[in-house]
């Protein structure tokens, strides 16, 4: 099972990196009172990492019940 998860993680990471590299345009991010311009690749990778962390945390909470 560990090898399967590793392979899936590598494939997912490669897909996310390819998608991010294909979207290198600058975007403006607005959140509450903050506003900044950054590369869309950073936004995509950041959102992916945050989603992964929150997903793992949710799985741990559900498994404890």
Query: How can the largest sheet be summarized?
Result: 2 strands, antiparallel
Radius of gyration: 15 Å
Average pLDDT metric: 89
Give the N-to-C terminal Cα separation: 23 Å
* Helix content, binned percent: over 70%
Using the alpha-carbon principal axes, give the shape: flat
Which class of secondary structure composition applies to the elements? alpha+beta
Number of separate helices? 2
Which stretches of 5+ consecutive residues score pLDDT under 50? none
Count of structural domains: 1
How many β-strands, per DSSP? 2
If strands are numbered along the chain, what order do they take across the biggest sheet? Answer: 1-2
SSE arrangement, N to C: HEEH
Q: What percentage of amino acids are in beta strands?
A: 15-25%
Which features characterize this protein?
single chain; alpha+beta; 65 residues
Structure write-up:
With 65 residues, the chain is α+β, with helices and mostly antiparallel strands. The protein has one domain (2-64). The protein is built from two helices and two strands, in the order αββα. It has helices at 2-22, 40-64; strands at 26-31, 34-39. It has a two-stranded antiparallel sheet. A hairpin with a 2-residue loop joins strand 1 and strand 2 (34-39). Helix 1 (2-22) packs antiparallel against helix 2 (40-64). The radius of gyration is 15 Å and the shape is flat. It starts with a helix and ends with a helix.
Compile the SSE list and pairings:
Layout: H1 2-22, E1 26-31, E2 34-39, H2 40-64
Antiparallel strand pairs: 1-2
Nutshell version of this structure?
With 65 residues, this protein is of the alpha+beta class. It has helices at residues 2-22, 40-64, and strands spanning 26-31, 34-39.
């Amino acid at each position: 099972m560990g090898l399967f998860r590793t392979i899936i993680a590598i494939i997912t990471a490669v897909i996310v990196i390819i998608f991010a590299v294909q979207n290198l345009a600058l975007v403006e991010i607005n959140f509450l009172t903050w506003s900044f311009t950054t590369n869309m690749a950073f936004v995509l990778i950041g959102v992916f990492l945050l989603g992964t962390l929150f997903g793992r945390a949710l799985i741990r909470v559900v498994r404890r019940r």
